[in-house]
From TrEMBL:
CDD domains: ABC_DR_subfamily_A. Pfam families: ABC_tran. This is ABC transporter ATP-binding protein. It comes from Arcticibacter tournemirensis. SMART domains: AAA. InterPro entries: AAA+_ATPase (IPR003593), ABC_transporter-like_ATP-bd (IPR003439), ABC_transporter-like_CS (IPR017871), ABC_Transporter_VariousFunc (IPR051782), P-loop_NTPase (IPR027417).
Length: 260
């Protein structure tokens, strides 16, 4: 009998998405396996956030099928949402709350027990170095401090799949290192990470598989080593080549000319 490989954690089949008449995702097909760290990259407007919103159940008017742990997302949205931790791009926190109040609110949305929420929130706030601000209103927080609370809110329920949309924006260099380490430790524990970013150096280091989307289509899929063999020496170069922007220096010159 032929040996069966592990079942994918995420399967996307024939995904198409239109906003009005404009198609922004074009026939996306994908299998993602447990423990993989997927770096999802692409130019502004390529369709990264839209893909992520489909995966997290925030968008449901798409064509095609998405399965999480073998279950059809459309028919099991509530159950599947508890398996996923999502840190959106540009999220709004309820910043009149303190981190402890906010995390308590989020934990309850995931049906966590009160004592468990508080214990985890305390540990995570300490790990992210903001325990001293645990009971301070977040409208006094810097961008990076808010981003840390958002990251904590995405993992507090210990989800199997963690979807991060540009999670490093506003974080200082130490916090970036910490999040990179965290991603690799979580994947070693078998968590699946789906990570959208424009920070090529970080994606290059943390991802074991990189997906490049351009104009709604996946145009490259492989490890950094594999992409390097076919398309260029650095992820920046690979990105530029496959998205048709190798001449970006001219754009900067054009802008300068326009100012003259
Ligand atoms: N709610 C919406 N209504 C109409 N069009 C939308 C909507 N959200 C996104 N779009 C369009 O869909 C396309 C894909 O957007 P998306 O936000 O998925 O891109 P992205 O790859 O995440 O971009 P970025 O890197 O800038 O965050 C863009 O052209 C965008 O203008």
């Amino acid at each position: 009998m032929e040996e069966q490989g592990p079942a994918p954690v995420i399967t996307i089949k024939g995904l198409n998405k239109f906003y009005d008449t404009r198609q922004v995702l074009k026939d996306i097909n994908l299998d993602v396996f447990a423990g993989q760290v997927i770096g999802y990259i692409g130019p502004n407007g390529a369709g990264k956030s839209t893909t992520v919103k489909v995966l997290t159940g925030l968008i449901s008017d798409y064509q095609g099928d998405v399965y999480i742990n073998g279950k059809l997302l459309k028919d099991n949205v509530q159950e599947i949402k508890s398996l996923i931790g999502y840190v959106p791009e540009n999220a709004e926190l309820y910043d009149v709350l303190t981190p402890v109040e906010y995390l308590d609110f989020v934990g309850k949305l995931y049906s966590m027990e009160e004592a468990n929420i508080l214990e985890r929130a305390t540990k995570l706030l300490r790990a992210f170095g903001i325990e001293a601000n645990a009971n301070q209103r977040m409208d006094t927080f810097s961008k990076g401090m808010k981003q840390k609370v958002l990251l904590i809110s995405g993992i507090i329920h210990n989800p199997e799949i963690i979807i991060l949309d540009e999670p490093l924006s506003g974080l200082d260099a130490n916090a970036v290192i910490m999040v990179k380490e965290l991603i690799s430790l979580l994947s070693k524990e078998g968590k699946t990470i789906f990570y959208c970013s424009h920070m090529m150096d970080v994606v290059e280091k943390v991802s074991d598989r990189i997906l490049l989307i351009n104009n709604g289509q996946i145009v490259a899929d492989g490890s950094f080593e594999e992409l390097k063999q076919h398309h260029g020496a650095t992820l920046e170069k690979i990105f530029a080549r496959l998205t048709g922007k190798e001449e970006s220096s001219h754009e900067a010159e054009d802008i300068l000319q326009a100012l003259r």
